[in-house]
TrEMBL record:
Gene3D superfamilies: High potential iron-sulphur protein
Name assigned to this protein: High potential iron-sulfur proteins family profile domain-containing protein
Source organism (scientific name): Hansschlegelia quercus
Oxidoreductase as UniProt keyword: no
Record field: transmembrane: 27-45
Length: 103
């Protein structure tokens, strides 16, 4: 069994051959690459996603105050029961190691 001498030429020709829709494969590949670059640019132009909050465990959150310090007096507290830095439900009577008194 011998291979036809023009295998390479046949493969090359098929790369340039037009599909049944009249568009060459090379043009399709180039179009796909351009579209991919466009999608990547759109993704990069979006504003950065909001940072995720720290877990209560990592912040060493507790449901009770630490001395006179408590979430209600913290600048990061978001009434009625949230925090801008710590995830989950936060009690105004709670405390964590990120405590920062209101200015
Ligand atoms: S002490 Fe401040 S930072 Fe910590 S959980 Fe309470 S409100 Fe958030």
């Amino acid at each position: 069994m011998s291979k036809p001498e023009n295998d390479a030429a046949t493969a090359h020709d098929s790369m340039n051959a037009e599909t049944t829709s009249g568009v060459s494969r090379r043009a399709l590949v180039a179009g796909f690459a351009a579209a991919s670059v466009g999608v990547a640019c759109l993704a990069m132009s979006r504003p950065a996603r909001a940072q995720t909050k720290m877990s209560q465990a990592d912040a060493k959150y507790q449901d009770s105050p630490k001395g006179s310090e408590k979430c209600a007096g913290c600048g990061l507290f978001a009434a009625p029961d949230a925090c801008n830095a710590v995830d989950g439900k936060i009690s105004p009577e709670g405390w964590c190691q990120l405590y920062s008194p209101k200015a």
